[in-house]
Amino acid sequence: MRAKIWDIAFKDVLRSLRNMFFLAFGLGVPLLMAAIFYFAFGGAGGEGYQVPTTSVIVVNLDEALAEHGDFSAGEMLLDFLSFEDGGGDGSMADLMTITEMDGAAEARVAVDRQEAGVALIIPADFSAAMFEPDGESAIEMYSDPTLTLGPGIVKGIVGRFVDTLAGTKIAANVALARLAEEGIKVGEGELQDVAMAYANWAISLVAGEDAGNDLLTVRSPLNPEAEVSQDNGVIQIISLIMGGMTVFYAFFTGASSALTILQEEEDGTLARLFTTPTTQSTILGGKFIAIFILLLVQLVVLLTVSSLIFQVDWGAPLPLVLSVVSLIVISASFGLFVTSWMRDTQQAGVIYGGVMTVMGMIGISSVFTAGVPNVSPAVKTAPLIVPQGWAMRVFELAMDGAGVDELILPVAVVLLLSVVFFAVGVQRFKKRFA
User: Fold this and answer.
1) What local confidence, expressed as pLDDT, does residue 109 receive?
2) Are the beta carbons of 26 and 252 closer than 8 angstroms?
3) Is the whole-model pTM more than 0.85?
4) Average pLDDT, the chain
5) 397 has a pLDDT exceeding 70
6) Percent of the chain scored above 70 by pLDDT?
């Protein structure tokens, strides 16, 4: 009896391995998606993704203050934007190229002609505003509307510099308040000295004393708190995408494998099998086992190929095993459950192409929100309303280096759902062929 079960399972697996649907959508598409993103980011072994250098025109109209030692905040900003540190991570030259111009109108025209990406126009009262109690000044940023990343980087860097200089007034006001509490009266000259001391500290940033503060920090989309190297960041992204594609298409494999039961029913081959001395339980049992084996083959191939070619990090061995087993069990049982409700194979297009596609996209939605700041709790928990989401959660935890103790809850939920899906699916199939 057991030999017949495995014989039926083996024949079904061989037939599925020769099926173009499985080869294309079970193996080809997930690997192709990973390959597209892998090579789009330059590959983990290459130079990796490079932030494009933005051409910036600076028009410095700022007037130096002779009464404060020819202090010029505009010159400080220009020096800050031109700061180089040997072309390393602390070098502005990696992010932008600076060109000076005398006229604001000329700079705007250059941006309009796409000769530059951004024009920064420093007003004449930029330095004076620092020392006037109610002084205000604004740097004009004129950018190419077709660019997004470059102007955003420039705006962030300039904003950091301006915030630093704005601290001069805060420092002066704090000093004035503390001295007033002590009953000490200070004049305008002393307050200006405090402001200048703070400004000199800001100059030290330009001089490189703050080079330890990276201009760009790459973080893992799975664990935003952990800093990673640029190349490793690419691997983390590819790993997350590959994990999502694996979960997404594993459910299709489970469902399409279960669909062969209905296909054989329509072709009449299943009815002929039921006329043989082989019991119904043996026949259905062999077909159920074939689904699990096919999923195992699919996952072994996907994990092995992606690890060797794309350097995908699937996590530690034991958490990975739990992830694979969980995905196989839930995909197979859910496939049986869904297929057991179909009247015939003609409903497969609607169920697979519509319902399961939507459920799959919801389940792996964490792939699309990874690294996005301030994601609402509702969006984070939305994938867990579908079984694909729980399978994806197990894979995410494993790839993020979680221990077995952290996997207990999601794995338990996956197994519980699998038992329910499998029990309902098997019962309906037995009732159908009784």
Assistant:
1) 94
2) yes
3) no
4) 80
5) yes
6) 81
Phi-psi region of 226 (alpha: psi -120 to 50; beta: other; left: phi over 0): beta
Least confident of 51-65, 215-229, 339-353, 394-408: 215-229
At residue 212 the predicted structure's pLDDT band, cuts being 50, 70 and 90, is very low
**So what's the pLDDT on residue 134?**
72
Query: What domains appear along the chain, each with residue ranges and CATH number?
Result: 2-44+223-432 (no CATH), 54-207 (3.40.1710)
For the chain, give the number of residues.
434
Q: Write phi, then psi, for 227 (nearest 5 degrees).
A: -80, 140
**CB environment 24-63: b (16+ within 10 A), e (fewer):** ebbbeebbebbbebbeebebbeeebeeeeebbbbbbbebe
User: What span, in angstroms and rounded, lies between the C-alpha atoms of 387 and 92?
Assistant: 47
- Give every strand in the sheet of 96-101, ordered side by side: 96-101, 54-60, 118-122, 140-143
Answer whether residue 92 shows pLDDT above 80: no
The predicted pLDDT at position 143 comes to 93
Q: Tell me, what amino acid is at 425?
A: G
